[in-house]
Amino acid sequence: MSGDRTRDEAEAWWSTAIIAMRPGEIRLRGHDVRDLIGNVDLVSMIWLMTRGSLPRPEEARLLEAALVAGVDHGPQAPSIAIARMAITCGVGINGAMASAVNTLGDVHGGAGEQALGLYERIIAVSDALDGDVEAAAQAVIAEEKAAGRHYMPGFGHRFHPLDPRAPRLLSLVDRAVAEGVVAGRHAQAGRAVEAVLARGREKPVPMNIDGITAIVYGELGFPGPLARGLFILSRSIGILSHAYEQSLEGARNKGPLPRAMTWRYTGENGFDEGGSGGAGGEA
């Protein structure tokens, strides 16, 4: 009896509805892995593992489109730059990827989750305003500004006057709405934010990749934390690609600046003008 109780306690230590396993058999969310292999695509597996059921094909296509859109934005993105620098330090592909993923926080990587939260607040307020989404967006944005938050997550971009990924994805959402795949309420909220932010401005503040992928994930029923996780999954593809490419160059200890350039020293007793701001060694 004592042995049975000990085993029960051990088995209950980690309880999960995700996987069942015993010698010679693996079941994922109740599906035999042998039935999944070769029959279910990776995007549908992401849905199955995070949501507990397989998506409809049209849902999987929309999710895949959002994942494709977010894979990379070049070495100017901190996560990509860090992956490339880390691989030159000899940490290996896993260390480079982990270093990069660990930078995807609230500022770089978390805006999609924040935008989804913004949309859902707007949807809730619009329900109280008999469906007036733009009035709801105006009210929520006013609350944000009153709290000192003048940046709306998911809108505006440092490099793109118009993020080329947003209109394409939004058109796919519109198609999914027309086909009855999704309801379109998050898309309405996103467009309302864009309209409110454009008022009184010469240049609009258009939706960016975080704003549009938040629409997709919200329309498909993913909660905020999973929206961030899905972005990280997507961006990990770019991180892997850049880390591997950098590894082929054979560079060692590649820093954020070319070796001939150094940083600006702002303290006392620096070098004369025109001198070096710091040493260029490998340490």
UniProtKB/TrEMBL annotation:
Does the keyword Transferase feature in the UniProt annotation? yes
**Can you supply one Gene Ontology CC term for this chain's record?**
cytosol
* Example of a GO MF term: lyase activity
**What biological processes does GO assign it?**
carbohydrate metabolic process; tricarboxylic acid cycle
The biological pathway it contributes to is: Carbohydrate metabolism; tricarboxylic acid cycle; isocitrate from oxaloacetate: step 1/2
| The protein's Enzyme Commission number | 2.3.3.16
Q: What are the alphabetically sorted keywords of the record?
A: Lyase, Transferase
Pfam families referenced in this protein's UniProt entry, alphabetically: Citrate_synt
CDD domains recorded for this chain?
Answer: CCL_ACL-C (cd06100)
Q: State the SUPFAM superfamilies in the record.
A: Citrate synthase
Q: Which domain of life is it from?
A: Bacteria
Look up keyword Lyase and say if it applies.
yes
Q: According to its UniProt record, which protein family does this protein belong to?
A: Belongs to the citrate synthase family.
What NCBIfam families does this protein's entry cite?
A: PRK06224.1-1 (NF004864)
Protein's recorded name: citrate synthase (unknown stereospecificity)
